[in-house]
Amino acid sequence: MPSFIFITGGVMSSLGKGIAASCIGALLRARNFSIRMKKLDPYINIDPGTMSPNKHGEVFVMEDGCEADLDFGHYERFTDTTCSAGDSITTGKIYEKVIAKERRGDYLGSDIQIVPHITNEIKYFITRECNNVDFTICEIGGTVGDIESFPFTESIRQLSLELGKEKIICIHLTYLPFVKTAGELKTKPTQHSVKQLQSVGVQPDILLCRSEIEIPDDIKEKMAMFCNVKKENVITALDAENIYLIPHQYHKEHLDKRIYEHFKIPVEDERSIDEKISSKWGRLTKLIRNPSKMIKIAVIGKYTKLQDAYISLTQAIMHGGFANDVRVEIDWVNADDDHSTIVKRLAKVGGVIIPGGFSVRGTDGKLEAIKFARENAIPFLGICLGMQLAVIEACRNVAGIHSATSREFSNEGEMVVDLMESWDNSGETKIRESSENKGGTMRLGKHDCLLTHGSKAKKIYNGADMVSERHRHRFEISLQSWGSVLEKAGIMVSGVSRDGRRVEIIERNDHPFFIATQSHPEFESRPFAPHPLFSSFIESILQSKKEID
Ligand code: GLN
Q1: Distances (CA, A) of 216 to 176, 212, 549
Q2: For 477-517, how does the pLDDT look when each residue is reduced to its tens digit (9 = 90+)?
Q3: Superfamily (CATH H level) for 3-286
Q4: Whose CA is nearest to atom 8 of ligand 1?
Q5: C-beta 474 within 6 A of ligand 1
Q6: Are 297 and 352 in contact (CB under 8 A)?
Q7: What is the pLDDT of residues 93-129, one digit of tens each?
């Protein structure tokens, strides 16, 4: 059985529990411990797949196709591990399981209750499939005291009793507001949220305190006393200008050391660990603070009000910047703006990205942006919907098929982008219907793509014959039906699905960098292994010499 690290959140949401859990994972990985990252989300949805990106942020897609909370993206990027469907649980999934068991008759004779039936299922989820790792890091979504989170905190309490306190550590991420008029950091909200935790029988071992200023010693002492925590376990989590500076920052605050102390893990090689963490994470400090150049790109999307809606994309762009030693500024262009505003903004950037998206709203603005990038030789990267629109734009404006469209937008016109037969490789061919269930029915997860000999895409992917990328889409382009039209539209198909039937990557030979892919390469990018499509896109902008001062 591994040791368990629980991360709870107090005072308010958006304090960055996901980042905190990821940074703890990164620090344990730096000491070569094996870890597993899990998240318990209190919402009743089965998964976030049907939630609005404008409210809940991006849906992260795992290798196995699980549609998960965006925090899984942070886990994978910071800890360089791969998560899977079993690592993500929601209240909805727990209830679904318990109700299925009840219907099957597994609990015959009992009335089903939160304790023990729901909590047993939660504990099973927390402890399953982790015998081969040293630590399981488990983030509890939401804020302590929320009506939905009780079964989760109750499960932590039960586990502490069952496994013994020496196998479990509870880290409570909290917030100390700085009241300017009083010139003071306030501890009362933290005291209250710790009381909430204590009232359900959970005593935090470490308080990780978000603060905009250094926390003075007397405030730490006060919190330690009121919250029943050792003073050295009250740790400052200062606001950071960039999330990749946080692992090093936590290490300097001795967060990892306190965790090892709790579990009585001897730390003999402290100097060499210090050096390892400084050289790995500290190295990013230079790239973040003093890049040699700056460029600006535009992302044209529909969910531009909430940055979390494109979090993996933002990260992949940043990683591509690291690879080229440049800072990339993003101009978030609202696809619903009028065309002249969009074009004016695009004239000022070095490159254009059309990210993934859903439904017809905003597609006119995106098509206009693609046309502008194509005609003005501006480096262009299209992702998922971005590729479908790049194909529609070329069919309409280059090949002269004016009614070219996608089944997602209309039932009239030439369906260049359409529903195709089933992709489940079960051997059974089934035409999918627009009316089928929306949740969990897309082409999800890793799918292979064969790269075309002589294409730029193949070169970018280091000459590989085949690559595997994560997908999340319902509509697609049939190579058989549209291959010759695409050629007429000046498009080279540079990647196809393994069965040769679906267009996976396209590019234009009459353009310095015009590549679009049906997959979501942003989900695979890591700070220390930037995705080649993003680094080469940024490199092409540098070659076009459009830097900003
Ligand atoms: N809406 C498109 C589809 O379902 C594209 C999806 C996406 O961009 N992720 O095929």
Answers
A1: 12, 12, 39
A2: 999 999 999 999 999 999 999 999 999 999 999 999 999 99
A3: P-loop containing nucleotide triphosphate hydrolases (3.40.50.300)
A4: 356
A5: yes
A6: yes
A7: 999 999 999 999 999 888 999 999 999 999 999 999 8
Exposure string over 133-146, b if 16+ CB within 10 A, otherwise e: bbbbbbbbbbbbbb
Give the domain ranges of the chain: 3-286, 293-420+441-543
Pick the atom of ligand 1 nearest to 359's CA: 1
DSSP letter, residue 51? S
Pocket test for ligand 1, best of 353, 385, 408 (most atoms within 8 A of CB): 385
3 state SS of 9 = strand
Same fold, 3-286 and 293-420+441-543: yes
CATH number for domain 293-420+441-543, candidates 3.40.50.970, 3.40.640.10, 2.40.70.10, 3.40.50.880 = 3.40.50.880
User: Encoding tokens for residue 436?
Assistant: 């089928």
CA distance linking residue 397 with residue 394, whole number of Å:
5
- What's the 3-state SS for 150-188? HHHHHHHHHHHHHHCHHHEEEEEEEECCEECCCCEECCH
Q: Are 331 and 314 in contact (CB under 8 A)?
A: no
Helices within 176-334 (DSSP H only) = 188-199, 217-227, 246-252, 255-262, 270-289, 311-324
The SS3 call for residue 125 is helix
Indicate if ligand 1 lies below 6 Å from the C-beta of 522.
no
State the SS3 of 96-123.
HHHHHHHHHCCCCCCCCCHHHHHHHHHH
The CA distances from residue 279 to 22, 30, 34, 273, 535, in Å, are 18, 11, 20, 10, 22
187 CA distance to ligand 1 middle (Å): 46
Calculate the CA dihedral of residues 371, 373, 376, 377 and round it to 10 degrees: -130
